[in-house]
Every structure is written in C-alpha cells, then in structure tokens.
Amino acid sequence: MLDIPLAARLRPNSLSEVVGQSRALGKNGPLARLISGDQSANWPSVILWGPPGSGKTTIARLIGDNEKAHFLELSAVSASVAQVRELISKAKELKNLYDKPTILFLDEVHRFSKSQQDSLLGAVESGLITLIAATTENPSFSVITPLISRSLVVKLEPLEDADLISIMRRALESNKGLPGASFEDEALQYLAKISSGDARRALTLMEAAVNGSSDLVSLEIAKQAAQATISYDQAGDQHYDTISAFIKSVRGSDADSALHYLARMITGGEDPRFIARRLMILASEDVGLADPQALVLAEATAGTVERIGMPEGRIPLAQLTIYLSLAPKSNRAYEAINAAMKSVQAGETKPVPAHLRSTGAVGYHYPHDDPRGIVPQKYREGQETFYHPTEHGFEAELAKRVEIIRKILPR
C-alpha cells in the first residue's frame, strides 16, 4: 500500500472524513443528498469548480460509492467522442438491465472540446446519466452554456491552512499514512502555507520530507523537500504559482522570464486557451490605453490558438507574450472603472440630467454642431474624476486630449 501516493491512501471514505468545504457539503444540500444516495428528488448534474487539491475527485468518488447508482469515470485528458458515446451506450444497457441511474465522473472537463461536451448533452438532458464534472477553470469560459444550464455549479474553495494541518496530522496518526514519522509543528505550518490550499500538494510534500529524513522532520528538512519537488505539474499542482509568475513577469516587462514560465506551462501540459485568456485580461488591465492594439492582438491570438491547437499554438502565444511584455503599460482604465463602481456603490447616483433623458429631453446640445466636436454641456451631477491618464505610449496622446476636453466641459 505504501507504493500508492499518500494523498490516494488518505482519500476520505465518507462525508464525515472530508475536511473543509462545509458550505458546498452543507446538510441537506444537493451534494450531501447525492453522497447519501437520497433519491427523494431528481439527482442534478453537478460541475465542481475549484483549485487543485480542494476535494473535487474525493467528492465525486463519494457520490459514486452509493449503491443506488452505477458509477463510471472518465478523464477528459485522454477521452474521445467515441469513448463518450460508448459510455452512454453502456449507461443505457445498465438502465435497461438494473433500472439504476448512471453517475459519470468526468475529470478536467475544461479539456474537452465543444464537440466532446456536446456529445454529453442528450444523455444529461434525458436523465440517462448524472454528470459530475470537475474543473479548475471558471465554467463560464471552459464549459458550453447548454451543459452549464443543465447542471448545478458548485464552487469549492482552497482549503485553509488549519484544514491542511488537520489533514497532515491525520496522515501521521493513520495506519494508511506515515507510520512512525514525526514532524515539528513549524514544519507542518510551513508545508500548509506553501501548499496554497491544496491538500494533495501538502501530502506530497509531506511524503517527500519523510523520505528525505530518518528522524524528526524539522522546518529545514521540510524546506529542502519543498525545493526539491518544485516543478510544473500538468495535473495542476503548480498551476496557480506558475501562471501568477508568468503574468507578473509580463506586467514587469521581463520578456525572458515571461517566456520561461510560458515554456514551463506549455511543457507541463497547461491548457493553451487558459493562457490566452489570461493574456487577454492583462492586455486590458496592465497595457490598456498605453497600447490599445494589445487587446486586438490578444483576442486574435486566442482565436488562433483555438483554431490551430498545439503544438503550433505555442508560437502565437510566445509572440503575444513578448509583445505584451515590451508594450508600454497603463492600468488607468482598470483603476478608472473600479473607482467609478466604488462611487456608485457608495450611493453617488444622482438623477440623470433632464437634457440627457431618452424622453422629454429639453436643452440637449448636439456636439457635432460645434466645430470642436465638443460643447460645454454637463453630463452628470458631480465633480469626481475617475480617469487619470499616464504619459506612457499612446495614452500620452490621450492625456493631451483629456486636458482639452476637461477645459471645455463644465465641472
């Protein structure tokens, strides 16, 4: 048994053993009913959305352990449309033979193409299968709308450090865990902190630390084990750290470091569509109006990657990464909308001026009638300024324009 990874050996066998996710697993909630096998209401299909190590696979397998349904499992990393159809046919046979529903656990559903996801719709809609899909990405971007509308989306949160320490202590106390091993409290706290809410990562690091020591695992030994296991895991263990370093390198204008992290993600099997989406966000948030062409190029790159796939998709991703790294930077559009929303949320919502209303407007002046294209006309009650342009790139030209406009418009 010790040849099996520690995280697999300690996977909970009942709902009571699950640590964390109290909101998602609340009493009488849909997940609790599915795990208990309660058929008092129709079982919903579920999309479990959460970071690595938050319990998605554990919850799915607990649901599959009940005796009132057949449980089938599929990974979107390797499955084809043909395999999906074969599985649906098997579900029909099981339904006819035993009159039991089939629960299908589809791991990493975001790696399924649109056509692969489409192939599930009929079986989900008819109730032939109850789909339990797991994803680390926002379903709004990675799962087709018809499938989302037929499913309950449950968001799982990263585990708290206290939860991770509880899980690691269970590993020390369980016969299936690390018999005979002992850790300093500081070592457990360190492993919890660097695991960023990922129970699987915490247990993997814990096991590595024990393998590197025949005595009490100290803080220093835990740190050494953590350093020795740093790599990008295509299953997602380093997903958040690496994408964070990538985005921060692009924002910091370090193209070489950005390419290094891009290479780690591509080599590790990261979904290129996820990378492209993050770069689209950055093009608006961090480059913004200093180079408006950045967003156009980011959108074009995302479309290109979607059409050509990998490995060729690495080339436009690298091109965009370099472009955005070297582009002038401005986050003033991002700051402007945040400031405007904060103002609105604080109650700064005075009535729309009479001359701007859609009906009964009196006194509106048409800007094109003025040779400057701007008329001294008030567009809202209030004096707060939200947009403050930089002098970077194209935004420097906008700054000059803003200055002219604000001299004409009444404040």
The CATH superfamily name of the largest domain is P-loop containing nucleotide triphosphate hydrolases
How would a textbook summarize the main sheet? 5 strands, parallel
Query: What is the 3D shape?
Result: globular
Given the structure, what is the number of helices?
18
What strand line-up does the widest sheet have? 2-3-4-1-5
CATH topology of the largest domain: Rossmann fold
CATH architecture grouping of the largest domain: 3-Layer(aba) Sandwich
Mean of all residue-level pLDDT scores: 86
Which CATH C-level class of the largest domain is it?
A: Alpha Beta
Q: Which structural class matches the secondary elements? A: alpha/beta
The termini sit apart by: 74 Å
Instruction: Name the poorly predicted regions.
Output: none
Q: What amount of the residues lies in strands?
A: 5-15%
- What Rg is obtained from the alpha carbons, in whole angstroms? 27 Å
The SSE order reads HHEHEHEHEHHEHHHHHHHHHHH
The number of strands is: 5
Percent helix: 40-55%
Integer tally of domains: 4
Mind sketching the topology for me?
Layout: H1 6-9, H2 30-36, E1 45-49, H3 56-64, E2 70-75, H4 81-98, E3 102-107, H5 114-126, E4 129-135, H6 139-142, H7 145-149, E5 151-155, H8 161-173, H9 185-194, H10 199-211, H11 219-228, H12 239-251, H13 255-267, H14 272-287, H15 293-308, H16 314-326, H17 332-345, H18 395-408
Parallel strand pairs: 1-4, 1-5, 2-3, 3-4
Helix pairs in contact: 2-3, 4-5, 8-9, 8-10, 9-10, 9-11, 10-11, 12-13, 12-14, 13-16, 14-15, 14-16, 15-16
Describe this structure in words.
The chain is an alpha/beta fold and 411 residues long. It has four domains: 21-155, Rossmann fold (3-Layer(aba) Sandwich); 161-228, Helicase, Ruva Protein, domain 3, CATH 1.10.8.60; 239-326, Zinc Finger, Delta Prime, domain 3, CATH 1.20.272.10; 350-408, no CATH class. Helices cover 50% and strands 7% of the residues. It is built from 18 helices and five strands. It has helices at residues 6-9, 30-36, 56-64, 81-98, 114-126, 139-142, 145-149, 161-173, 185-194, 199-211, 219-228, 239-251, 255-267, 272-287, 293-308, 314-326, 332-345, 395-408, and strands at 45-49, 70-75, 102-107, 129-135, 151-155. Strands 2-3-4-1-5 form a five-stranded parallel beta sheet, sandwiched between helices. β3 (102-107), α5 (114-126) and β4 form a beta-alpha-beta unit. It starts with 5 loop residues before the first helix and ends with a helix. The mean pLDDT is 86.
